[in-house]
UniProtKB/TrEMBL annotation:
One of its GO terms (molecular function) is alcohol dehydrogenase (NAD+) activity. SUPFAM superfamilies: NAD(P)-binding Rossmann-fold domains (SSF51735). It comes from Drosophila kikkawai. InterPro entries: ADH_Drosophila-type (IPR002425), NAD(P)-bd_dom_sf (IPR036291), Sc_DH/Rdtase_CS (IPR020904), SDR_fam (IPR002347). GO terms for cellular component: cytosol. This is Alcohol dehydrogenase. It catalyses: a primary alcohol + NAD(+) = an aldehyde + NADH + H(+); a secondary alcohol + NAD(+) = a ketone + NADH + H(+). Its EC number is 1.1.1.1. Belongs to the short-chain dehydrogenases/reductases (SDR) family. Gene3D superfamilies: NAD(P)-binding Rossmann-like Domain. It comes from the Eukaryota. Homodimer. Keywords: NAD, Oxidoreductase.
Length: 187
């Protein structure tokens, strides 16, 4: 509704996807900035300063980075949870009403595994539970910060994320196949 600007922050520049987004509504300005959620908060704040200087206001942040590979324990935690916390922390510098900010809305992408773990991937499931709990705390802080927060917790979605991935300590070598045997949704 009345979207003026859409800013995509991602590690991968995908001009075809940007063009597709622009074609949906040519009145919306779509901009891409390279961004890795695992960078330190100071780098995120620097990028946000650039974005806020250009746009003046940003109303919504959708935190949607994620990986599913329990062999990469540190990276899974860094991308799925720490990066989300750092990005949220950085944008609060601009939005927090205690600092004169206008407030904003944060939508963190969780997963149903945040409520019902996939036991073969406890690291991934744990990060999504952390996202749910972090966001629940943020939501309760809204009267103080002026920032509304909620999670979207999709079920199994047919993306490259779930076609092939590694279970924790190889406890289930065919976890991807077993997962995809359940009802799924399109991406």
């Amino acid at each position: 509704r009345d979207l003026k600007n859409l800013v995509i922050l991602d590690r991968i520049d995908n001009p075809a996807a940007i063009a597709e987004l622009k074609a949906i509504n040519p009145k919306v300005t779509v901009t891409f900035y390279p961004y890795d959620v695992t960078v330190p908060i100071a780098e995120t704040t620097k990028l946000l300063k650039t974005i806020f200087a250009k746009l003046k206001t940003v109303d919504i942040l959708i935190n949607g980075a994620g990986i599913l590979d329990d062999h990469q324990i540190e990276r899974t935690i860094a991308v799925n949870y720490t990066g989300l916390v750092n990005t949220t922390t950085a944008i609060l510098d601009f939005w927090d009403k205690r600092k004169g900010g206008p407030g904003g809305i944060i939508c963190n992408i969780g997963s149903v595994t945040g409520f019902n773990a996939i036991y073969q991937v406890p690291v991934y499931s744990g990060t999504k539970a952390a996202v749910v709990n972090f966001t629940s705390s943020l939501a309760k802080l809204a009267p103080i910060t002026g920032v509304t927060a909620y999670t979207v917790n999709p079920g199994i979605t047919r993306t490259t994320l779930v076609h092939k991935f590694n279970s924790w300590l190889d406890v289930e070598p065919q976890v991807a196949e077993k997962l995809l045997a359940h009802p799924t949704q399109a991406s």
